[in-house]
Sequence to fold (283 residues):
Amino acid sequence: MILRILLLVLLSTAPAHAEDVFDMHVHLHDGDASLRAYEADLASSKLTAVGFGAMWFGGPHQALQGDPAKIRADNDAGIALAKKHAAMLPIATVHPHDGQAALDEVARVAARGVKVLKIHPHTQKFDAADPRVLALVREAGNRGMVVLMDNANILPGDSEKLFNLAVQAPKTKFVFAHIGGMNFRFWNILALARTADGFFGDNIHFDISATVILLADSPLEPEFIWTLRNVGIDHVLLGSDYPQFTLGKTVEALEKLDLTAEEKAKIRVGNARRLFGIGGAGS
Fold:
């Protein structure tokens, strides 16, 4: 009887992060070796990833202008890796300045089942306000792809450019990574944008990778929570930005936020299930 009571106490005090989670933001710099290290880290954190969005680029590997053949080959390597790992959602990339070659690659990877296209204005050295970027994200949206873009707000005006891009491509769904970093306050504008008839397509989502670790337990946490609710909890996803940050640390930070259990469940996995059509009950 005492053993049974002890077991019930242990189960009732199990860490909340033992639940299912989807990681929107994983960099696999060394392919399968990086994936094995990521899975080992998940196991050590006692997390169950129902899925994770993984990209081959970032860190030492950048998808720069002028070599679409290499980008295509690396996209194929990511797709092949995902076929061996059912939980992996492959994320492809192109360079907007590669013009028709970039548009053709979007069509090609979409036909191969890729659901996410990632582009990064700073590491790929392009301006988010460039008309070629608009043409690219519209094409991705027409192909049913979600466009993931960096939003650490490295330079002044970055968030404003992304907002304008999303307004001009209302049929494309976007995920802006890092929710503006320390400029997260800007995104409260979405609460107003939704009230303007015919203006905003409500097509913006966010991953809170890195930023949630910085702001949890900080003096700015109440403002951050206020922002999450203003942008809409249904539009917020969890991401680690592995290997820079681990998913375990990210989930721990999420659990510190003064959100309801229902809100945390949506951020942890429910919203990703809905956005990407992943199996399992949504939250």
About this structure: The mean pLDDT is 92. Residues 68-84 form the longest helix (17 residues).
